[in-house]
Design goal:
- The complex is a heterodimer of chains A (95) and B (485).
- Chain A is mainly α and 95 residues long.
- Chain A has a domain of 37 residues: Histone, subunit A, CATH 1.10.20.
- In chain A, 36% of the residues lie in helices and 4% in strands.
- The longest helix of chain A is centred in the first third of the chain and has 18 residues.
- In chain A, strands 1-2 form a two-stranded antiparallel ribbon.
- Chain B is of the alpha/beta class and 485 residues long.
- Chain B has a domain of 271 residues: Amidase signature (AS) domain (Amidase signature (AS) enzymes, Alpha-Beta Complex).
- Chain B is built from 16 helices and eleven strands.
- In chain B, the strands form two sheets. Chain B has an eight-stranded mixed β-sheet, sandwiched between helices. In chain B, strands 1-3-2 form a three-stranded mixed β-sheet.
- In chain B, helix 2 packs antiparallel against helix 3 and helix 10 crosses helix 12.
- The chains are: A mainly alpha (95), B alpha/beta (485).
- Chains A and B meet through helix 1, helix 2 and helix 3 of A and helix 10, helix 11, helix 12, helix 13 and helix 14 of B.
């Protein structure tokens, strides 16, 4: 399996990564090599095998429905790149 | 002082032969003198360390404190430390000061340990050579033209060079064991779910597990025990008491059944490393272990399986870095999409970007079944191989890496060649079982690591076997030239 430069640009868009034009071709080559290596998986016969998402056979724990977190809004906002009046700032979303 | 075991250091502290402040200053002095040549620390927290040391000394003066009180350590910079920069080796988090402590940081602080600083690492723990760090590569103390392995390269270089008596580390596909092997250390990745992941920056959540790198199995046992245990803040933490690893060390290993997977001794393993491993097998036999061949037929598919599962999980985990709530933000974004794309494009290095793109691709419409679902099925086959092996044997033994440490820059342009460094270590992460590496010899003066893999929650048995081996050998006591004195 190989990825074309166009496909790399599409994947980068999906992943929200800006790629400088000169990096597209090297990435296409490297990602193709990785996918080629990954292609070995097709040699395994997995018809009757259940997928394994996780090593432990466990279910999500439940806890009593009570407040367990203190309010630390100010601490978390203090490490944000841009805030104003307790709100996170982003560029204008509505034109 | 830096050549002492943790037990010896604890005895010295208890007898007041030296104080924790003196011990801490000794390490801080070594870091200042020797780390410029190694780059093992991203941040040194001298002030915080001396404060912790004074608190430990106050406890010790009252005859209180435990076996780790007053003993320094390095924390891998993947663990959140309140009030201290937690970079994860990335420009993305270069200015990130964590608002809370990881659970293991809390636990080791509570045990009285003294944090010397935050250890260098591959960016977001993605790498096998510590060359993807935003803060520059770490050098191997055994040969500074060579890599220390990764991703816990700073942790191992610091301990191997005596810039910390012990260090925390994490292992998603071999990031504790491979660097431990390349620097003559003992490193253990416990069973998935044994150590809390709360506050440990996520890479691949179904594989990530924290552990330690140490100068011996005995040292590793003491700190691993203090780190382990149930944590309600981690939804995959296991509710099960922690075994007494330290008490288990002294058991004889007569009758211990050790399996040698034939796939781990096939083509690709360096001849010198093979000879060292085979000699180690003889030592285990002389200690009464019973050795037989086993088979892990799907183990050769570990690397391709991992390079679907891990990037898939990483692409999802790293979606949180959006330039909005914390981390790097680009200048003057024109719109939201530009903000996301440039913040992430500037904040992440090349290897992290590659893995995010691979992950995004294998999860995307039309490719999900062929890649992600297929990899999850092969993961089950790899897991089943271990289940069968552990019906026959107690531990599985093999090499940790195919070769000794390679030269800096040798594999940076070839991601696939770099990925093959973890050919022997990845299967344990996919299965979720505990695994460790310990020193077993040298090839042209460079350390060789031996890997032990155990059944679920069998850390004590592995550490016991490693300790008994270390009582019979002295490979782990060797120091890289220029660092012992």
């Amino acid at each position: 399996m190989s990825l074309s430069p166009e496909q790399v640009k599409q994947v980068a868009l999906l992943a929200r990564l800006s790629l400088p034009p000169e990096k597209v071709e090297p990435y296409a080559r490297q990602l193709s090599n990785i996918l080629e290596m990954v292609g070995q998986l097709s040699s395994a016969s997995t018809d009757a095998v259940a997928p394994m998402a996780h090593p432990l056979d466990m279910v999500q724990r439940l806890r009593p429905d009570v407040v367990s977190e203190p309010d630390r809004r100010d601490d978390y906002q203090a490490i944000a790149p841009a805030v104003e009046n307790g709100l996170y700032l982003v560029p204008k979303v509505i034109e | 002082m830096h050549t002492s075991s943790l037990k010896e250091l604890a005895a010295g502290l208890k007898a007041r032969r030296f104080s924790s402040r003196e011990l801490t200053q000794h390490y801080l002095g070594r870091i200042e003198r020797l780390d410029p040549g190694l780059n093992s620390y991203i941040t040194v927290t001298a002030e915080r360390a001396l404060k912790q040391a004074d608190a430990a000394d106050a406890l010790l003066a009252q005859g209180q404190g435990g076996p780790l009180t007053g003993i320094p350590l390095a924390q891998k910079d993947i663990f959140c430390t309140a009030g201290v920069r937690t970079s994860c080796g990335s420009k993305m988090l270069d200015k990130f000061v964590a608002p809370y402590d990881a659970t293991i940081v809390k636990k080791l602080d509570a045990a009285g340990m003294v944090m010397l600083g935050k250890a260098n690492m591959d960016e977001f723990a993605m790498g096998s050579s510590n060359e993807t760090s935003f803060y520059g590569p770490v050098k191997n103390p055994w040969d500074v033209t060579r890599v220390p392995g990764g991703s816990s390269g700073g942790s191992v270089a610091a301990v191997a060079a005596g810039l910390a008596p012990i260090a925390t580390a994490t292992d998603t596909g071999g990031s504790i064991r491979q660097p431990a092997a390349l620097t003559n250390l003992t490193g253990i990745k416990p069973t998935y779910g044994r150590v809390s992941r709360f506050g440990m920056i996520a890479f691949a959540s179904s594989l990530d597990q924290a552990g330690v790198v140490a100068r011996s199995a005995e040292d590793a046992a003491a700190v691993l025990q203090a780190m382990s245990g149930f944590d309600p803040l981690d939804s995959t933490s296991v509710e099960r008491p922690v075994d007494d690893h330290v008490a288990a060390l002294d058991r004889p290993i007569k009758g211990l059944r050790i399996g040698l997977p034939k796939e781990y001794f096939a083509e690709g393993l360096d001849a010198g490393s093979r000879a060292a491993i085979e000699a180690a097998v003889k030592v285990f036999e002389s200690l009464g272990a019973v050795v037989k061949e086993v088979s892990l037929p799907n183990a050769p598919l570990s690397v391709p399986t991992y390079y679907v599962v891990a990037p898939a999980e990483a692409s999802s985990n790293l979606a949180r870095f959006d330039g909005v709530r914390y981390g790097h933000r680009c200048d003057n974004p024109v719109n939201l999409k530009d903000l996301y794309e440039r913040s992430r494009g500037e904040g992440f290095g090349a290897e992290v970007q590659r893995r995010i793109m691979v992950g995004t691709y294998v999860l995307s419409h039309g490719y999900y079944d062929a890649y992600y679902l297929k990899a999850q099925k092969v993961r089950r086959l790899i897991y089943d191989d271990f289940r069968r092996a552990f019906d026959e044997v107690d531990l599985v033994l093999g090499p940790t890496a195919q070769n000794v440490a390679f030269k800096l820059g040798d594999k940076t342009d070839d991601p696939v060649a770099m990925y093959l460094n973890d050919i022997y270590t990845i299967a344990a992460n996919l299965a979720g079982i505990p695994a460790m590496s310990l020193p077993c010899g040298f090839v042209e003066g460079l350390p060789v690591g031996l890997q032990l893999m155990g059944n679920f929650f069998d850390e004590s048995r592995m550490l016991n076997a490693a300790h008994q081996y270390q009582l019979a050998t002295d490979f782990h006591k060797q120091w890289p030239k220029g660092f012992a004195s």
